[in-house]
User: Fold these one by one.
Assistant:
Number 1:
Amino acid sequence: MDPELIRRLSIPADTKVVLCVLDGLGGLPGPRGRTELEAADCLHLDRLAEEGMIGQTLPVGYGITPGSGPGHLGLFGYDPLEVEVGRGVLEATGIDFPLGPNDLTARGNLCTVDADGNITDRRAGRLATEITGEIAQQLSGIELPGYEALVQEVREHRFVLVLRPLDGSAALSEALTETDPQREGAPALLAEALAPDAGPAVEVVNRFASEARARIGERETANQVLLRGWSRLPDLPQLPELWKLRAAAVATYPMYRGLARLVGMDVLDAGDSLATQVATVRERWDDYDFFFVHYKPTDAAGEDGDFARKQQAIAAFDDCMPELLALDPNVVVVTGDHSTPATMAAHSWHPVPALIWGDHVRPDDTHRFGERECAHGGLGTIPAKELLPIAFAHAGRLTKFGA
Amino acid sequence: MDPELIRRLSIPADTKVVLCVLDGLGGLPGPRGRTELEAADCLHLDRLAEEGMIGQTLPVGYGITPGSGPGHLGLFGYDPLEVEVGRGVLEATGIDFPLGPNDLTARGNLCTVDADGNITDRRAGRLATEITGEIAQQLSGIELPGYEALVQEVREHRFVLVLRPLDGSAALSEALTETDPQREGAPALLAEALAPDAGPAVEVVNRFASEARARIGERETANQVLLRGWSRLPDLPQLPELWKLRAAAVATYPMYRGLARLVGMDVLDAGDSLATQVATVRERWDDYDFFFVHYKPTDAAGEDGDFARKQQAIAAFDDCMPELLALDPNVVVVTGDHSTPATMAAHSWHPVPALIWGDHVRPDDTHRFGERECAHGGLGTIPAKELLPIAFAHAGRLTKFGA
């Protein structure tokens, strides 16, 4: 649904909606011809499918394999083809870095260059995260005219660079080239402008790179930086404002907390397990109208190609459903942000099983929550971005269009 | 289908299409877990479903609850998100008021104000329609420079105001604010311009309001007017021209006759019952290629929350099918303009059951006309605006695209 239309039709209501995202939920047949979800013991989800309506979501489009960013933006009701979150911003949100609207952000690599300045290892031997942390502290001190450089380690050789304007300086443009030549044997590149107004950005970025080289050039390895994925916070209409509700994210992984923060959700302290997540939802039940519960183990097992573990992870989520349902939500949605079939050990383009249960749901002829049943469920196969509007309609949060 | 494409591909043919709109047809499970349609005794519709193809229509979009205007515009093949019919125009069409293309129209309320001009009752005690009629006659005489004021009662305190240019005056802009403060204790507002060219409209409207006050201000109640929903006839490509055919509306309620008139259908005198409607179709069978038959009792019962009555209304429509089929139509479509589940006693966002029967229909695996069967029918779940093009294709009224 178009944001302007949402703004026009959304109304407050005294109802609760819970969106459960089992990351990478969709799968492919494994042993005995059943998918991970079909093979999993899902007493409660099957009951919700029986009473409710199931179908499939298409995260981005036919044949498109989504990353976590587009996958979640779709579930939050945005068109992932229109709203792109840059790599730098995604990396920063992934480490809970509090980005501001004027920050220019990049993903950085520490690399190793030889005496001539040619790259010998683009990943600096995947050095220990702690060492990257120490180097990040050194780089954070770099002074740039009008801008502050904030550097924070991510993992191994990876870090995030944030260039923040000091009082009075303008936000830097993201329209500039990357400094990573994407191959070894070549030197790091100078950033170049991709738009007329990117001149200041080019100057600041190249100044940062040369200052960085000055500070860490004496090191044998990890003695240079490569910068990619220039981006700024997207200017997204915020979910609570669009829908006139209070929205909370209950996620254990920083990436998903960051994505939720991008659309304006309050990010709750949810501990580090499904049990603490469910407890968080219970404790904060009265404070919010909408809860986004993110569950990572399904995707992690799928990425590892571990069919049995993904199957168990789904069953473990099913076990928590009675506790969530005991809170008496009006509408519950269970789906994934994309498929991660264990047989592929990777994200895939396959549609994702989806389930809507609650007030005013028109039941269909299906009885179990699984890929094959979802393919002919009453919900049909719909763009993921339509799922939240449908859920909010069931929760009485959309008024009539036209007389 | 895009109007330009329709114009390009539509061809005349010696075929008849009947579109039966059971208003608010879609429902939700009630007693014994069946919907109104599933529970209704529909021998004939079930046979059409068996022989034909069923599916679901989405009137406006996912999660969107349509009013009657958008619901019907979709069924007539227009995109309800692109073609909006304003409140004033809809109110006027609802009383069969013959609007012209240059008329500016508003919905009016008679209200009661105190000696200080503050509203004490926005609905003037919901006075009798007859009295509103008398007041409307008084107000219709108001002289405005360059414009004629036409006022006609609707029901209780509601009336329609039409400002029509006299020879030589331009159509007035609809870009102006409403004069209804939407609360009591405040005075009626002056209209203000929302666009640079709305100056003349503001002048005429405020002049009308003050003249009205002068004429009815002596009354104890119903002594002031409130004006809302400024609108003009939408400039719609006309259905007979687009499709190269003769189209007739057979409806007993003025609102639906008005909507049909907006898209260029001939509005037939159809009596006040389904029996007279069917008789009208029979009598005029040779004069038209397309008949829109509108049936209101399903929606009325749904709005009243009367499951049994809605079920019976559907069965009553089913009873008339043999008479319609005896006319030997080439294609029959049966659907609704939206869902009105009796359990909700209101319009809803749920998709609407749809059935296509006739020449060249590819049958599907379904056997009964009901929500659950429709959810996996061969037609799929399609935007309502695509239903008429599909029906006309079956009737040989769309030629090949490309060589």
Number 2:
Amino acid sequence: MMLHFENDYSEIAHPAVLQRLVETNLVSVSGYGNDPYCESAKERIRTACSCPNADVYFLVGGTQANATVISTMLRQGEGVLAADTGHIADHEAGAVEYTGHKVLTIPHVNGKVTPEALQAYLRAFHTGANTDHMVYPGMLYISHPTEYGTLYTKQELTEISAICREHEIPLFLDGARLGYGLVSDGADVTLQDIAGLCDVFYIGGTKVGALCGEAVVFTRGGTPRRFVSLMKQHGALLAKGRVLGAQFDTLFTDDLYVQISKNAIETARILKAAFSEKGYRFYIDSPSNQMFVVLDNETLHRLEKDVVFSVWGPEDENHTIVRFVTAWSTRMEDVQALIALL
Amino acid sequence: MMLHFENDYSEIAHPAVLQRLVETNLVSVSGYGNDPYCESAKERIRTACSCPNADVYFLVGGTQANATVISTMLRQGEGVLAADTGHIADHEAGAVEYTGHKVLTIPHVNGKVTPEALQAYLRAFHTGANTDHMVYPGMLYISHPTEYGTLYTKQELTEISAICREHEIPLFLDGARLGYGLVSDGADVTLQDIAGLCDVFYIGGTKVGALCGEAVVFTRGGTPRRFVSLMKQHGALLAKGRVLGAQFDTLFTDDLYVQISKNAIETARILKAAFSEKGYRFYIDSPSNQMFVVLDNETLHRLEKDVVFSVWGPEDENHTIVRFVTAWSTRMEDVQALIALL
Amino acid sequence: MMLHFENDYSEIAHPAVLQRLVETNLVSVSGYGNDPYCESAKERIRTACSCPNADVYFLVGGTQANATVISTMLRQGEGVLAADTGHIADHEAGAVEYTGHKVLTIPHVNGKVTPEALQAYLRAFHTGANTDHMVYPGMLYISHPTEYGTLYTKQELTEISAICREHEIPLFLDGARLGYGLVSDGADVTLQDIAGLCDVFYIGGTKVGALCGEAVVFTRGGTPRRFVSLMKQHGALLAKGRVLGAQFDTLFTDDLYVQISKNAIETARILKAAFSEKGYRFYIDSPSNQMFVVLDNETLHRLEKDVVFSVWGPEDENHTIVRFVTAWSTRMEDVQALIALL
Amino acid sequence: MMLHFENDYSEIAHPAVLQRLVETNLVSVSGYGNDPYCESAKERIRTACSCPNADVYFLVGGTQANATVISTMLRQGEGVLAADTGHIADHEAGAVEYTGHKVLTIPHVNGKVTPEALQAYLRAFHTGANTDHMVYPGMLYISHPTEYGTLYTKQELTEISAICREHEIPLFLDGARLGYGLVSDGADVTLQDIAGLCDVFYIGGTKVGALCGEAVVFTRGGTPRRFVSLMKQHGALLAKGRVLGAQFDTLFTDDLYVQISKNAIETARILKAAFSEKGYRFYIDSPSNQMFVVLDNETLHRLEKDVVFSVWGPEDENHTIVRFVTAWSTRMEDVQALIALL
């Protein structure tokens, strides 16, 4: 029996979410999200965001949500800015480029786009010569938590938002792991902050208690025209939209989304303390549920026999960067078993 | 309480399918379809198809499956042939064109492509002048049952397959409602026939007992290179592939897929008899679970108060073509209640 | 020595146009259309159109102009309406679909879209159910003269324009052979009419005296944002834009464009009279420079020995529809030689 | 009267090229490259390349040639590798991404891809984990001369070619300025070397004596199926293909292409000597016809009054990198006039 620390989607769904599907299974409703579960879930999300006029849509997965939002908000000839470590830049198999748009990269600092680098990029473009021959930076994509598990501060997010508004481009926040970001140690950005500062973002379900599903929230009226049709065109309109609606309705009842996220942070905290104590070195310091650790290759091969984790890449000939991830579903007994192996 | 006859995806999933998800919920497995449920389901599907070397992949929905299969099997500059009533031609919001490929239409006969029309199209193209300026017909798409609920005969499918092989283009069968097609009155095409005659097809789950999911089967070694990566690029690679695997594994255990399909045909048979008896006129004669009925507009408005069904379009000023659909989940009591209203 | 009647681009350019290139050959100017020849040509075109605020751009060829204009004026999820005989529907190798947009076809009448059919299509769409699953008709494409050499009347064009404005979609006129349309027998649509009734159109150079080049005219302020950059993205921004500018500047000096077009109509008139006199049957009656004639196959094979013309397709087993075309450059002696062969 | 040193396309065409168009102007030939001029030009190019079986096609411009070749040679899901300074990466307005393919960048060394960096990238990809989620490196794009005017050595090109063949990806060389590269001081790569080591390359006409046109050469049988149709789909098939054919036929008669290139190198040599002598600093050392010079901003503004050149970007607050370019058409008197101003 292997210990699974490779990602935060190794189990299906929080039991309360699955139970909701069982309970509503044979209730007949219309398709494509025109159902009372979706309506209720949207309203709960608007309330949680303090954003009563937001447009909310449910998509199935993260890559799909990213490609659909980005391609429909960009105009032809525009690209999306992202950190060079951004998920869309590296790990979505070119899904954004497949829609005809370039991902324009900015060197990351701890997985983040800094306000300074963003402003420099945009100023250089808008004062440069010959920009007719270049891709227009038409949108900013950030992830929170980032691909390195790091978090934007409220100060950073505020500055980034202001720069985007100065240059009149939308700010899109990928919240695939948003729940974990909200409850991480030292987190000072709330869901309401995000709704207020971003033009569009999504609340990740797949990695935070749902069977599948991401809730895309357009906060300020910039919803692309005929967005449901565009979702259909992307193959991203689920026939049984009610499956997504019922899940998010459950996750946003009694603060379940936030409450179940805490387990990931608590188990990660214990694990990180153990790594430190036993002399392991972190590749990057992350306050959320992803831990990047440098293993000597001997340890790597020893651990691989009992534990599933992700290999990030070689550091040098003898060392490898690996990732351990906790989730809403991580069992403390598995954490202890892993610690015993370190 | 409305009676739902608008489609075959008004409920979530067959209870046995949902139960399987509940039972396996907290078992930790790897993502993206690298899990024992997918492996088992693929093997069961290969067996059911008598196609031991088939490549099987699980996608989330029909439009996504169509766009992904078509765009990855076509080369640049090629289009896909389809009946002008084909789902990809009319009702997928241009999803195929969005991938850069034209849908080349052939006039339908009862929702079907006839072997004669297909051969004529291909012969004309391949003997014509100036075809460098035209889109190359690089694939044939058919649906079975069709969008009108009709079925190909084994003879027709055999002829169509032979024509495709003569012209060296793949034959793709959209089986979104395949289960119903296999058990319809007079159906003479089996799953094994389809696997033997088509290059690729999919077994619809969304409309036949699954929460979501379509099983794409490449039967003859023509699987596009790096297909998993291409699914990812299309936003069609589910993180929790095991959710799809577990469902198809259940549906292909003890012939469940076929057994639950019968309910749709039995309830449709009773309903069709009632329509006929009460003097309603069918727009098209369908042996499967979709019924196309011509209503005078007064009846239309009366029925709409208690029954949900689809409006297909006006026949003339006073008559409208509507569609009633049954499913694995249709309750006989609802059928009787509808009949009482006719 | 074959007689060439296959198209209207068998020679390079009107001598005055080529002479202009020779004269300005070694004058050094900036690239990409930022030169005095383009400026002058644009101004002359605005004047000829009585459209002082029009935006004018020079592209190299017709397919390129069509794909660039259509893809940049449509939003994602929208398609372009066209007659089913429209050049973009059949003879551009899927160039529009390659940009991700569907060509939505309307059955033609003599190669034209009728106002009635257009209105019916748009009304049906906008009052229909389930249009989220369909491609939005976002633009109308017509050609003038059409692919069959026929012409819109001013009345027809006025009605079509009004319908487009009612539904708030742009009207795009492909004028690849516009010069010939302006001087055809019975033509009652002027360049100013077109500029007043269309949102965008192009004045064909390739087929009317230029070496290459089409002048795209946005008449009413709907020019896509950053259009030069979008041309570049399409590979449609000529480095030596001045080559296009100098040609159109010459063609729009002293009414040259219109004057040289007359030769095509005069030679066609004589040829048509000869066809009629000798008992040939026309497939369609065209007032401009394209003639569609039905040949028995014996005559076809006899003529092919001395004359180059286009085969349009079989009419029946023994007859073939062929096309003869005249141009600004057609020599009367060649016309007489062809007549002698009939 | 300004002195033009901004690029190598400020004049139209070498007089002999233009003269050929004048001479053949009214000869009637078929369209789309099916003419004797194209045939003859192709044969001359095959001979010049010592590549008797090469497939040769004529396209209009460089961005168009790059996008058409790259998109038709890549499979879906594949990207093209290029130096981060490569023209396709930065200065083609996202034309490659518009076709759905990512440009994968490798840090340049003097504008070049080094064999070491290429091998490292490909080895890392092919031994890496999780590459299903990444874009497959399916082709290498290099330019020769590069965007910085530098040249590959025969040794480098040989090693790069071997690495591409080891990993079974085509090597594509953008020769927009190829003529200048062949005659630069110290150049040791011949046209025959390029034909032998690359899978596809193009011989630039636009910047080397033609009015427009690039000759794409597939050297080893990898020509995409139905390439003419794919050119049409890209809007890259010129109706009057003969205009391109006649130009290249002239350029490849009596070694004209190479002979006229020498003027650019000779004038550049004199100019570079003058820059050095007068104490100007080069940003990068280039042996071909592009010179990158660092100007203090005072000098920049002074020179701008009389000379047209390109601003590359700021070096620091007080200095700017600019580019001067010579060409086949550069007049020695203009060089002397520029030197007098330095």
